[in-house]
Write a structure and sequence with these properties.
The complex is a heterodimer. Chain A has helices at 2-17, 20-28, 42-61, 70-80, 85-112, 121-143, 148-162, 168-176, 183-215, 221-224, 236-261, 287-295, 305-321, 323-326, 339-360; strands at 30-32, 233-235, 299-300, 303-304. Chain A is mostly helical. Chain A has a domain at 34-270: Up-down Bundle (Cytochrome Bc1 Complex, Chain C), CATH 1.20.810.10. In chain A, the strands form two sheets. In chain A, strands 1-2 form a two-stranded antiparallel ribbon. A two-stranded antiparallel ribbon of chain A has the order 3-4. In chain A, a hairpin with a 2-residue loop joins strand 3 and strand 4. In chain A, helix 3 packs across helix 11 (236-261). The longest helix of chain A is centred in the middle third of the chain and has 33 residues, at 183-215. Chain A is globular and about 70 Å long. By secondary structure, chain B is an alpha+beta fold. Helix content of chain B is 24%, strand content 35%. Chain B has helices at 2-32, 142-145; strands spanning 44-49, 57-63, 66-72, 78-82, 93-95, 100-103, 108-110, 116-118, 127-133, 136-141. In chain B, the strands form two sheets. Chain B has a six-stranded antiparallel β-sheet. Chain B starts with a helix and ends with a helix. The model of chain B has no long low-confidence stretch (mean pLDDT 89). The chains are: A mainly alpha, B alpha+beta. The A-B interface holds A 152, 155-156, 158-160, 170, 173-174, 177-180, 184, 272-280, 290, 293-294, 296-299, 304-306 and B 32-34, 37, 60-62, 65, 67, 69, 83, 85, 87-93, 103-107, 116, 119-122.
């Protein structure tokens, strides 16, 4: 009875939108199975976390009120008065952090397995844009509770943008909505966080997913060189999707554990006329840049230290974005490590050392 | 003849499109740029009574929209500097243990003449003038007094 109704519904939809070829496409799509297959799941996990962000974000929107007094007070209200408000806010904060972490893992696994190579250059570039947007989400969302740490992190972050030669001042003023970090900045960050960034992110994410679906999963060199009968594969639908779903469930459990046992704190309300407190620091994913700026002297050669730092990170980010275009190809000697692998390891080591240093010292 | 006419139409349409784009983008860019809010032209502020201010302590004052740090040194002298760190805009504080001005954000240190002596700050802090008039502390912009 139910089955016949469902099949009727299916043929009604199929008649109008021709969905059978799409289902056939995903059924025939194959996902390689090999020793590095685990990395295929990272993108899916990131997508899941993004969906959680959208869901919890919409819930928080129902109570949050931007403003230098109402911002802090409304988050406190959410955490103390609203039913399960503490849980929703805590999940939103934890999920944001885990999301950025997984996106970093996803990016580096793509880098080390060489999945950015032809024909996937645009998938890499759209992925990098998504990472930048994710960090933008983090930076703008950090300020919304208007607490002391976020206030000074925003002052520093927007001032760094101001160090960009020629256009820096204009960028800083547009970001802050004026000369200083004030209620106007909070309004803007709110608009970026809940409207502008989600709109751009959705477009970039749609393209990223479209590219992946169109081109299929990347096969590493060693897998490509196997004879056809030795290549182990599983269907994308339902096998891969079901495994993905299981992992999503595990991630959801981890998130709930973190949110319940390590609830996200609100901190002290920001006061623009108080000195920056000791131990001021940005979100962990900005820490390596923060620590680098801290270590730079006031002048490097003839330019100011902060300008030098900003230029350095801008150049490195652009180089990273364009990796598929300038990749250093390795020589045929199999015993030697690939130059790009060494480069990736250097980048990871730099990020790790600077991040740990930032927290320890 | 036809080709010329087509070219003419193309230029007309292309120019029209550019003009249209400009007329859409220009107001948006201008809208993003916040209007300048007139800054209250503060020349000096009263910071309280001399005897209420302990030796070896400091206070952040509102000087118009800018924070200013007022310090009373060990010797009882009053000093005032712009409290915004010249590195990345954080608000500095007076360290009673080291007798220096310190920025917690990036570990920038200034001496009690406002000079950047270690860490990343590229410039000294602007100094303000402090006068005591009938035991009331008056902080004013250095340039206007001299």
């Amino acid at each position: 009875m139910v089955t016949s109704r469902l099949s009727k519904l299916y043929s009604w939809v199929d008649d109008r939108f021709k969905i059978t070829p799409l289902i056939e496409f995903s059924r025939h799509k194959r996902v390689p199975v090999h020793k590095h297959s685990i990395w295929y799941y990272m993108g899916g996990v990131a997508l899941f976390l993004f969906i959680i962000q959208v869901g919890t974000g919409i819930l928080l929107l129902l109570y949050y009120q931007p403003g230098i007094d109402s911002g802090y007070e409304s988050v406190r209200f959410i955490m103390t008065e609203v039913n399960f408000g503490w849980l929703i806010r805590s999940i939103h904060s934890w999920s944001a952090n885990v999301f950025v972490f997984i996106v970093f893992i996803h990016m580096f696994s793509t880098f080390f397995t060489g999945a950015f190579r032809k024909p996937r250059e645009l998938t890499w570039i759209s992925g990098f844009i998504l990472l930048a947007l994710a960090m933008g989400f983090g930076f703008s969302g950090y300020l919304l509770p208007w607490n002391e740490l976020a206030f000074f992190a925003t002052k520093v972050g927007t001032d760094i943008a101001g160090a960009v030669p020629f256009i820096g001042d204009a960028i800083k003023i547009v970001l802050r909505g004026g000369e200083d970090v004030t209620g106007a900045t909070l309004s803007r960050f709110y608009a970026f966080h809940v409207a502008l960034l989600p709109a751009i992110f959705t477009i970039a994410l749609s393209l990223h997913l479209l590219f992946i679906q169109r081109q299929g999963m990347h096969e590493p060199e060693f897998f490509k060189n196997l004879p056809e009968n030795k290549k182990k594969v599983i269907p994308f639908f339902p096998n891969f999707i079901l495994r993905d779903a299981l992992l999503w469930l595990i991630v959801l459990n981890i998130l709930l554990y973190l949110a319940v046992f390590f609830p996200w704190e609100l901190g002290v309300k920001a006061d623009p006329f108080e000195p920056a407190p000791e131990g001021i620091r940005p979100e962990w994913y900005f820490m390596f840049m923060f620590q680098s700026l801290k270590l730079l002297p006031s002048h490097v050669f003839f330019i100011e230290g902060e300008v030098f730092g900003v230029l350095f990170f801008t150049v490195v980010a652009f180089a990273w974005l364009l990796v598929p275009l300038w990749e250093i190809k390795s020589k045929s000697d199999k015993n030697k490590a690939r130059p790009m692998t060494i480069l990736g390891l250097v980048v990871i080591a730099y990020i790790l050392i600077m991040t740990i240093w930032g927290y320890v010292v | 003849m036809n080709v010329k006419r087509r070219k003419f139409i193309n230029i007309l349409l292309g120019g029209g499109l550019l003009g249209w784009l400009g007329s859409v983008i220009y107001p948006i860019i201008s809208f993003l740029n916040p209007p300048k809010v007139a800054e209250a032209n503060v020349a000096s502020i009263k910071a309280g009574l001399e005897e209420e201010f302990p030796i070896n302590s400091s206070k952040i004052l509102k000087f118009g929209r800018k924070p200013v740090i007022l310090i009373r040194t060990n010797t009882g002298n009053f000093l005032a500097f712009e409290a915004t760190c010249t590195h990345l805009d954080c608000i500095v504080q007076y360290r009673t243990d080291t007798k220096q001005i310190w920025c917690a954000c990036h570990n920038g240190v200034y001496d009690l003449r406002g000079r950047n002596i270690s860490g990343p700050p590229p410039r000294p802090l602007d100094e303000f003038t402090v006068n005591i008039v009938s035991s009331e502390i008056i902080v004013s912009r250095a340039t206007e007094v001299s």
